[in-house]
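Protocol check, entry for the methods section draft. Step 1: assemble the input record (protein sequence plus ligand SMILES). Step 2: submit for complex structure prediction. Step 3: store the structure tokens unaltered in the notebook. Ligand used here: flavin-adenine dinucleotide. Step 1 record:
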Amino acid sequence: MVAQRLLEHLCERPALPYSEIVVLSGEPTSAYNRILLSSWLAGDAEPESLTLKPDEWFAEHGISLRQGNPVSRIDPDQKQVHTGQGHIESYDKLVLATGSRSASLGLKGEGLEGVVGFRDLRDTRKLIEISQRNRRAVVIGGGFLGLEAAEGLRQRGMSVTLLHRGSHLLNRQLDDVGGALLARSLTERGISIQTRTSPVALLGNHRVRAVQLNNNTLISADLVVIAAGITPNSELGNEAGLDCDRAILVDGRLQTSDPSIFALGECCQFDNLTFGLVDPGYQQARVLAEVLSEVVGETDSSAVYTPDITPTKLKISGIPIFSCGQTRPDHNTESVVWQDHSTNRYCRLLIRNQTLAGAVLFGETRDGPWYTEQIQQATDISDFRSNLVFGPAYCEALA
Ligand SMILES: Cc1cc2nc3c(=O)[nH]c(=O)nc-3n(C[C@H](O)[C@H](O)[C@H](O)COP(=O)(O)OP(=O)(O)OC[C@H]3O[C@@H](n4cnc5c(N)ncnc54)[C@H](O)[C@@H]3O)c2cc1C
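Step 3, stored output:
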């Protein structure tokens, strides 16, 4: 998604800064909206609607697409990339936007048929196919991805058990009250939720048949979805000798330790930050388009990537959840919590030095963008703090 955004920014310029642009993609299609995989799984979107640009767009801009042909090696000395099919491509500038993959849990049985990640079109097609012929699914991971997978499979008619290691769902975003509200909503829809539970093995001969848990019980399963975090695809960079930590290290201009190679999106690490949402990647794409144009002498901008606060939303219809900024209180924050039991609404704000540091909204998320603005702009909230949980209309009345 991020490489595609970079191409679009480059194509917006009066003239393309490169005479030749080649996109080497591991997937058999051009770039698509990965975020909508959840909607496709839930039956709310068709796969065709995920495509970001038609093939003609690439042809019109003189961009060559080489699809379904992953790069297997970079040779930085020769300035060449080698693909798995033996193709060699030379470059002046190389951009790595290899994203990430579903993290492995290192469980016995992860290679069995019916054990699937939730990352791309192929995974999602497999999930849908299995759901059409089978009944019992186990989803491992109670973060955004796991919840969306669980709800999608439920909507496809499967009986779903969700396993989560933490004490409550979305434990990075919600406190125990918000987590309990969410669990109740999902349980009412028929999803079975087991928190403080981890799988220790996936059992079966050829196909997965059961999940063995750390409390020594077994759950029967025809499908197991592993959605317990992501691992940046940084191996290509690492093997080419680029400086890497948890991902490929870049500076504010998205440059790696090799001045001809850039990285952005989920495969890169800036300072101590790695990324799991698309917006930071889109900001990086804007900066990198400037930098790449400057490198060929078109501009002399001093574009630099500066990380921003990125809000997150749960994409399950009927269960609106919004989270932005700091999600866990610490000894420097105060918590303001508001809950309406009758309407199942809940809001938790974290305040530090009279500025908003984080916001979690459950049940009604309309004010999310306004809270994001207050966090990003570090607004002094002293004048309207007492009304902060009630949203902008009440705060503006006091300010
Ligand atoms: C189901 C789902 C729902 C999501 N929902 C949200 C959401 O609501 N909000 C949000 O902000 N984010 C969401 N995300 C995350 C978002 O999709 C990512 O942040 C975004 O796609 C990252 O873009 P990227 O370009 O870094 O990586 P990707 O979009 O993953 O693209 C990387 C591409 O590189 C290819 N590649 C990898 N290795 C090679 C190689 N060696 N050679 C050639 N090609 C290679 C991969 O096949 C892939 O096509 C979701 C993700 C998933 C899976």
